[in-house]
Design goal:
With 305 residues, the chain is an alpha/beta fold. The chain folds into two domains: 41-126, Leucine Dehydrogenase, chain A, domain 1 (Rossmann fold, 3-Layer(aba) Sandwich), CATH 3.40.50.10860; 150-279, NAD(P)-binding Rossmann-like Domain (Rossmann fold). The chain contains eleven helices and eleven strands. It has helices at 3-10, 19-39, 55-70, 86-98, 117-123, 135-143, 151-163, 182-191, 206-211, 259-263, 277-296; strands at residues 15-16, 45-51, 74-80, 104-107, 171-175, 195-199, 215-218, 236-239, 243-247, 250-254, 268-269. The strands form three sheets. The chain has a six-stranded parallel beta sheet. A three-stranded parallel beta sheet has the order 3-2-4, sandwiched between helices. Strand 5, helix 8 (182-191) and strand 6 (195-199) form a beta-alpha-beta unit. 42% of the residues are buried. The structure holds guanine. Residues 106-109, 131, 151-152, 180 line the site of guanine (GUN).
């Protein structure tokens, strides 16, 4: 925490965690890292695969490609029709696994229902699995090895540690048990010596569980589930939710936290949009650079986390 943050805390002023600003500074660090690698003859490459034309996925994929080009990465883009067979998708992954100029492979989820997402994820070379979804990386994360870490949980950790660097002994409650966010984030918080609870839709007395949290992460996919009276005064609140809802005849984005009521109680809170969202792509590019360095035995120009 900076002196300014401590003064704010003394005045009980809530810190608004500006994910867009943190991500912008991470992007500029990544650009320099790529420049450094290119000078050493290594241009990290990211392959993004989109199957079908889900509008939200198309937007995410477009942003991932734009950001990787801006960072100086080599970008490979594969758009396949929704009728693509699992066999054809697995064959593409095989080719990307063997391509030496591809360091990272991302298959955008969700996949059409006739394709087994777990099978596809498991087919990606773990060394190129920049999403961190391969069972090998999931296992390494839980055993404490050198894993590629899923991007959204990694982004959450960077934001939490930007507010408070020492997390040991804090009670962390994550609402949501997904493989993409809840479970890996629990491992990362455990690594930081937090006492971790994963709560979910079947948790008894969810408000009381949330009220115990020094760090409260909302990743349930339920618009404004968590209101201010579920928040412990001074808690760090991280909102992973991105929900499109109709309000007064307009479509707006809200998180899983009722922002205004939670802000009045929290010590620090992420907004939606502009909180966790922008961090995810920055972490994807970071993972790609890290994967490239590991694959080529090059020293990483990135700061260790
Ligand atoms: N769909 C929603 N989030 C993600 C993500 O982090 N990775 C991939 N591959 N697909 C997603």
């Amino acid at each position: 925490m900076t002196k300014q943050d401590i003064e704010r805390a003394d005045r009980r002023e809530t810190i608004l965690i500006d994910g867009a600003a943190v991500a912008a500074s991470l992007h500029s660090e990544l650009r320099s890292a790529v420049e450094n690698l290119v000078e050493r003859g290594l241009t990290p490459g990211l392959a993004v695969v989109l199957v079908g034309n889900d509008p939200a996925s198309s937007v995410y994929v477009r942003n991932k490609i734009r950001r990787s080009v801006e960072a100086g990465l080599r970008s490979f883009h594969h758009e396949l029709p929704s009728t693509t067979s699992e066999t054809d998708l697995l064959a593409l992954i095989d080719r990307l696994n063997s391509a030496d100029d591809v360091d990272g492979i991302l298959v955008q989820l969700p996949l059409p229902s006739h394709i087994d997402a777990q099978k596809v994820t498991s087919a990606i070379d773990p060394a190129k699995d920049v999403d961190g979804f391969h069972p090998m990386n999931v296992g390494k994360l839980s055993l404490g090895g050198e894993a590629l870490i899923p991007c959204t949980p990694l982004g959450c950790m960077l934001l939490i540690k930007g507010v408070r660097s020492q997390l040991a002994g804090l009670n962390a409650v994550i609402v949501g048990r997904s493989n993409i966010v809840g479970k890996p984030l629990a491992q990362l918080l455990l690594r930081e010596n937090c006492t971790v609870t994963i709560a979910h839709s079947r948790t008894a007395d969810l408000p009381s569980v949330c009220r115990r949290a020094d760090i409260l992460v909302a990743a349930a996919g339920q618009p404004e589930l968590i209101s201010g009276d579920w928040v412990k005064p001074g808690a760090i609140v991280i909102d992973v939710g991105i929900n499109r809802v109709q309000r007064e005849g307009r479509q707006i984005l809200v998180g899983d936290v009722a922002f205004e009521s939670a802000r009045a109680v929290a010590g620090a809170i992420t907004p939606v949009p502009g909180g966790v969202g922008p961090m995810t792509i920055a972490c994807l590019l970071r993972n790609t650079i890290e994967a490239a360095c590991r694959r080529h035995g090059a020293a990483s120009p990135l700061r260790t986390l």
